[in-house]
């Protein structure tokens, strides 16, 4: 995986529409988690996560490379999910194809990892107090919130990562996990599912994320997008000039002007 491209907030600020003072009133804000509300370098996070998971699974006979390859293959399967099944089903169907039916007996063992050992991966993540301040500000304004993190993790792992950011899942009207989602980023259908769950028109929503591919996919439905550039990922060097963007201070300023 390529290292994320890091841009300072001062490097690229608000898009032309925002610079001209055009105000769009959002009543619902969707937030990405990894690299957005929870600062992280993905390479460092994944190295620590995989290392701990491989050590955890070694007593069950999982060879590290085979396990990591299977995780990536099963994650790709979730990303390609056509919506006919939950991501959890797709993941385990892929895992069974690779390792055989015996792995079904280990699902609880994996769940235990996310409930216990996974918490130590927190040291590989950063912390942004502004994230909690922004969530509190939006809640105070009566804005509905969704935690639109790519649903390739179990709920226990999502809950843990939210806690590392000093957030509660109860702050959000919708939280996507591999148990409850049947699409993944960057499929626009993932965002359509969230809109349907919230009963909210796209024009009233803003997606805040740090991935120039996965998070801007929301724009295909007419959802507004703000790119948080503190940990920006732009592997394809896409032109992101059309989107409002910047650091947490820029995001706060944008929200003050554009939420009800």
General description of the model:
This protein is 39% helix and 8% strand. By secondary structure, it is an alpha/beta fold. It has two domains: 159 residues, 3-Layer(aba) Sandwich (Rossmann fold); 81 residues. A six-stranded parallel β-sheet has the order 3-2-1-4-5-6, sandwiched between helices. α3 packs antiparallel against α4. The longest helix is centred in the first third of the chain and has 16 residues. The N terminus is likely disordered.
Structural key phrases:
alpha/beta, six-stranded parallel beta sheet, 2 domains, disordered N terminus, 260 residues, Rossmann fold
What structural category do the secondary elements indicate? alpha/beta
* Count of DSSP H/I helices: 9
Overall morphology: globular
CATH homology superfamily of the largest domain: HAD superfamily/HAD-like
| CATH architecture descriptor of the largest domain | 3-Layer(aba) Sandwich
Count the E strands. 6
Q: What letter string, H or E per element, gives the SSE order?
A: HEHHHHHEHEHEEEH
Round the Cα radius of gyration to an integer and report it: 18 Å
Instruction: Give the strand content.
Output: 5-15%
The residue ranges in which pLDDT falls below 50 over 5 or more consecutive positions are 1-21
Report on the biggest sheet: 6 strands, parallel
Average pLDDT across residues? 92
Question: Helix coverage percent of residues?
Answer: 25-40%
User: What name does CATH use for the topology of the largest domain?
Assistant: Rossmann fold
End-to-end C-alpha gap: 39 Å
Domain count = 2
CATH top level of the largest domain is: Alpha Beta
Strand order in the sheet with the most strands: 3-2-1-4-5-6
């Amino acid at each position: 995986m390529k290292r994320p491209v890091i841009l300072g907030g001062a490097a690229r600020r608000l898009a032309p529409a925002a610079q001209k003072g055009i105000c769009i009133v959002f009543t619902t804000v969707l937030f990405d988690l990894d690299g957005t509300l929870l600062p992280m370098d993905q390479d460092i996070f994944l190295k620590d996560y995989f290392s701990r998971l491989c050590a955890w699974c070694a007593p069950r006979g999982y060879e590290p490379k085979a396990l990591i390859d299977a995780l990536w293959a099963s994650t790709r399967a979730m990303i390609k999910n056509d919506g006919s099944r939950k991501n959890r089903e797709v993941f385990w169907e892929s895992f069974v194809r690779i390792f055989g039916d015996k792995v079904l007996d280990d699902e609880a063992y994996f769940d235990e990892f996310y409930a216990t050992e996974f918490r130590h991966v927190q040291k590989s993540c950063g912390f942004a107090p502004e994230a909690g301040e922004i969530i509190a500000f939006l809640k105070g304004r009566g804005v509905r919130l969704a935690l639109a993190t790519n649903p390739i993790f179990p709920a226990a792992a999502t809950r843990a990562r939210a806690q590392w950011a000093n957030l509660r899942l109860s702050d959000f009207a919708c939280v996507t996990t591999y148990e409850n989602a049947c699409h993944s980023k960057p499929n626009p259908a993932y965002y359509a599912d969230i809109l349907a769950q919230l009963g909210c028109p796209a024009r009233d929503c803003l997606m805040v994320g740090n991935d120039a591919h996965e998070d801007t996919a929301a724009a295909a439905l007419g959802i507004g997008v703000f790119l948080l550039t503190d940990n920006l990922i732009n592997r394809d060097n896409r032109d992101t000039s059309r989107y409002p963007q910047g650091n947490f201070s820029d995001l706060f300023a944008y929200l003050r002007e554009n939420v009800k």
